[in-house]
Design brief:
46% helix
Length: 103
């Protein structure tokens, strides 16, 4: 386990930079992680992040399909907002571990 200072707060992260404790997350941390990843968060990003946090913190299954079925965003939009590996990147910014389905 490593620690990292993000947005002035020391948090515990794994080797990939994901927060180990989602309770350490703040919106300021989300903005800082997004900035490190080359993104500037819009309200649509924040809607997706809040959806992800709600699903994960309630121990519900999170997948690309569940996000697209939420009505918040389509899969195409998800790729546009979080380029490359959208679910992994969105989870990292949301302060939760990446889903087991992501390698």
């Amino acid at each position: 386990m490593a620690t990292k200072v993000i947005a002035g707060k020391t948090v515990n992260v794994n080797e990939e930079g994901y927060l180990l404790d989602p309770n350490e997350w703040t919106m300021e941390i989300a903005h800082e992680i997004a900035k490190e990843e080359g993104l500037s968060l819009t309200q649509k990003h924040i809607d997706v992040i809040n959806f992800i946090r709600d699903k994960v913190l309630n121990n519900e299954t999170l997948s690309m399909r569940s996000i697209s079925k939420s009505g918040i965003i389509t899969v195409k939009e998800l790729y546009e907002l979080f380029p490359g590996t959208p679910l992994k990147l969105a989870c990292k910014i949301a302060g939760v571990q990446k889903p087991a389905s992501c390698v």
